[in-house]
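Data availability (excerpt). The following record was deposited with the supplementary files.
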Amino acid sequence: MSAGSWRAWLGALRRDETYGQVRRLAGPAIAQQLLHTLVFLVDRVVLGHHRAESLASMQISAPVVWSTTTILGAFTVGSVALVGRRVGAGDRAGAAAALRASLAAALVFGLVAFLGGAAALPGLLRLFPEAGAAVHAEASAYLGVALASMPLLLVSLASAVCLQASGDTRTPFRVAALGNLLNALLTYGLVFGVGGLPPLGARGAALGSAAAMGLQAVLLVALLGRRGDGLSWRGRGGEGEAWRRMARVAAASLGERVVQQTGFMGFVAMIGALGGVAMAANQALISIESVVFLSADGFGIAAASVAAQRLGAKRPDEAARSVRAALFMAAVALSGVGLVFLLVPEWLLGVFSDDRAIVAAGVPCLAVAAVAAPIMGGAVVLSQALRGAGDTRTALGATFLGGLVVRLSATWGFAFGLELGLVGVWLGSTLDWAVRLVLLGVAFRRGRWRTLEV
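Predicted structure:
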């Protein structure tokens, strides 16, 4: 394609209404996703400058919190599909019923996470025997608070997801910004004992995060109760039917997330077998790479929201255009992020630790992450879009093959068979994303998602 043809194509794309809507939704969605994770990123940065054991403990704590939230938050996939379609069809009462069902599910699953997690915590720590007693103590302190705050986290998540599905990505972003400000102040003060606060180490970081999630949950629920023409939880009736429809869509997503987290915990266990330096370096790397995943997730949220609304309005061609627009934007943006990984790896890793061994272990892995960035981006956007359309079975199949079979076997082969260590771990995860991208791309082109009923 010539330069003139490229310019003409880009000009037509920018004038496309669907492209414009995806772009408007994607910006705040990306920012909100980054701010949501910034709560845990601040924990890692502060703990990294507290003690080496504190940062290493996040290799246990962060996956447990993330896995719990991801699995029990599977119901929100049904929320996106149902709220988006009801909004697209102009059914305000149906959208409100779906919101109420989502908030109720968040409270129930949050309590399940708290009670079940507290009972399982000693067993979880025994999965990481190489970490040592000091790391176990820090992880236990962090998780004790984090699991207790799980109902607040899931209510915040459900509220934000429903708003995004309705086409409002700005409100979750603004609320997340306030939560992050509170978290930064409290975490620093409670970890180091600044400003008259007690020095609590990892427990202090968890308390700061819990306070931030609590603030976000209260603000979002309050705002959803006073909205005029927008999405609101006010009203009664229809919750049972909404829950049944959401559960039907979310069932395969729950299976997908169980598969994903099973693979991820095996992945984490392999990293733990590489020792404390590799664990700490990987925590820094995951924090850096989260920019890629969360940016892709933001584009995917925009694509899922627009696609669900267009399908609700019986305009599947516009739904497909929204997904292609999100894929294009994600590819451009994440290729740029990958370039930053290549240019300043030492500086990026130095933000999280001043330990030279940790930085040296992470530098070659960032080169792998740079290549993986647009690949991951495409896979995340496609999976989000298909889920928003109600096609959760395809995402389940891709995750089973890529996230479980390929990731674990490839990581073991690269890291231990070929003795590539932490670099092998990152090569294994990259191969996983490549396989998922191919499978999801084929499913999107076939178009079964266009005719699904939610």
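Summary of structural features: The chain has two domains: 18-237, 268-450.
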